[in-house]
Amino acid sequence: MATHDSIGSQDRLAVDGGSPVRREPLLPGWPGGLLIGEEERAQVLDVLESQSLFRHYGPRPRRKTAELERRFAEIMGARHALAVTSGTAALISGLAALGIGPGDEVIVPTYTWVATVGAVVALGAVPVFADIDETLTVDPRALEAAVSPHTVAVIPVHMRGAGADMEPILSAARRHGLAVLEDAAQAVGGMYRKRRLGTLGEFGVYSLQYHKVITTGEGGMVVTDDPRLFERAVRYHDQGSARITELDEVAPGGNPLLIGVNYRMNELTAAVGVAQIERMDWIIARMRAHKARLVASVAGIKGLTVRPIPDPDGDTGATFIFSAATAEQSGRFAKALTAEGVPVSVAWTSGQHVYYHFDQFIERRFLSRRHCAWDCPHYRGKATITKGQFPRSDEILKRAVHFDIHPLFTDQDVDDIILALHKVARALL
Ligand SMILES: Cc1ncc(COP(=O)(O)O)c(C=O)c1O
Q: Which of 79, 107, 237, 365 has a CA between 20 and 30 Å from the CA of residue 267?
């Protein structure tokens, strides 16, 4: 087989009718999902056989949800963990526990998933966007510049497997008296300066949806070190009550009902989670090893820059992202690489992560005409969302080409990706 040194300029790109480097599809970005096996099966069967699918009671409760919470807290190094139905439910529970509501502004990055923005709006608060930088996470200076007298919290998002630069973010938040809720949905198990992502702010939230590092299909986790905030999140997610046994420690003797919702995780979901959490560090180690080879190989390609990561040692390795010098070059590179059998997308054109360009937020489309956020009478700020408001983010996202890494890639898979990268680079750069 050809090595990248032996590719001549005569090798026609697949996009121009040449043969692709690879015809067999690469595994898609479902790290934990494709590892579901005997352990998950045994855990789920245990719950089924117990006939006790509800976390709080049943004929022979297995308490898998409580077990997942205990193990998650232990592995993350957090005092408390709460299992919920999704990452979105985790965001809303954390924000609600912080007391966020109408009249409040919450700073979110320009590059995230819709849930981060939607969770703020669902509580009647106003999302205020702040530019990202080349790390594809919020620029700490832009975050600080977005602070207004109405700001109450910031949500740094650890996008595509890697942590935001938490130190300057935390100091900006402390200077302005803001709460920090880390959205680690896409970076479960990642670290920043030797601490797990999600454990540096007041709250950390995670998603266990199928595309994430570990999965329960749908699911989410909330962590905090603060017993009072934990109690509030627990109450909010469980109809305002405090039935979780751990609360006996943090709220002895009292159980005043509040108004909440039901975001409780069920025992079957938790059973999958109990098995998946034990796979997490292995998954991350494998993804990081594959990514290290890809990064090293691209370092030798003039004209491509690998995404800088504030703490590269804490990267989960879930995604490999690089940029060409211009949006046009990145677009052509992505198309050619995909044709070679390595399916990549440009962050911008994948189109699902740039919400300040999305009409539902610009036009404030609520199901109820009376639901408010920007238009709440309590809101005294001036934040609005308009297309083209963040040309710097647009420019960065139009150059960023991303690709999901799977822990079960073989060395041959990674060789093929490297070969395809070099083939396309020689032809196009
Ligand atoms: C950055 C980010 N935040 C929040 C979420 C919401 O998670 P879920 O889909 O589990 O509700 C996701 C999920 O894709 C995400 O990527």
A: 79
